[in-house]
Design a protein that fits this description.
Elements: H1 13-53, E1 65-69, E2 77-81, E3 86-91, E4 94-99, E5 110-112, E6 122-124, E7 131-132, E8 138-140, E9 149-154, E10 161-169, E11 175-176
Antiparallel strand pairs: 1-10, 2-3, 3-4, 4-9, 4-11, 5-6, 6-7, 7-8, 9-10
The structure holds FE2/S2 (inorganic) cluster.
Length: 177
């Protein structure tokens, strides 16, 4: 605590020395705080800036529910919708939809046909080698769970198919039109 000069009483030499020492200490403390603040700012600013760069200014997320076209646009077998990262499977009048988003870190899986041309196709992820059976069940690689199945419905206004990625359904779920 600093000693103050009493009004009207001159300081003794020892009091003046103490007062100078206290002022020096206060200056040192002040400079120490300024220095620490400058170091914190120098370290913190780049860290904050690099963290901010990980957050995009604009989110390009697709709507959860969207129209993908009429039934006639989908051939028998599989159709890959690149824009939506979905596979639509058609078997006559029956449809189902499997997400192409790998359940490991979200890369887009691809259909892999058996080399000998027989047997069932699979989904393979090019990023870290996860493999999924034709029903989306994960069986190799780091993927922790099967591919998602999404609900499909028919739009009442124009008959287009609507995929609802907010509605994950069981792998046995089918839409019959
Ligand atoms: S993102 Fe598919 S295996 Fe890693």
């Amino acid at each position: 605590m600093s000693k103050r000069k009493t009004a009207g009483k001159p300081e003794t030499p020892s009091e003046a020395g103490n007062s100078k020492e206290i002022k020096k200490q206060e200056r040192r403390d002040f400079l120490k705080y300024v220095g620490a603040g400058a170091v914190a700012a120098a370290i913190g600013a780049p860290v904050l800036m690099s963290a901010r760069s990980c957050i995009p200014n604009v989110l390009y997320e697709l709507p959860v529910k969207f129209k993908i076209g009429k039934l006639a646009q989908f051939a028998e077998g599989s159709t890959f919708l690149r824009e939506y990262r979905l596979f639509i499977f058609r078997d006559g009048q029956t449809l189902h939809c499997i997400s192409a988003r790998c359940t490991h870190l979200g890369c887009t899986v691809q259909i892999a046909k058996p080399k000998d041309g027989t047997g069932e196709f699979e989904f393979h992820c090019p990023c870290h080698g996860s493999k999924f059976k034709s029903d989306g069940t994960n069986y190799a690689g780091p993927a922790p769970r099967p591919l998602d199945y999404y609900k499909i419905e028919v739009a009442p206004d124009d008959g287009q198919l609507i995929v609802d990625t907010g509605a994950v359904v069981d792998k046995s779920w089918r839409l019959t039109v």
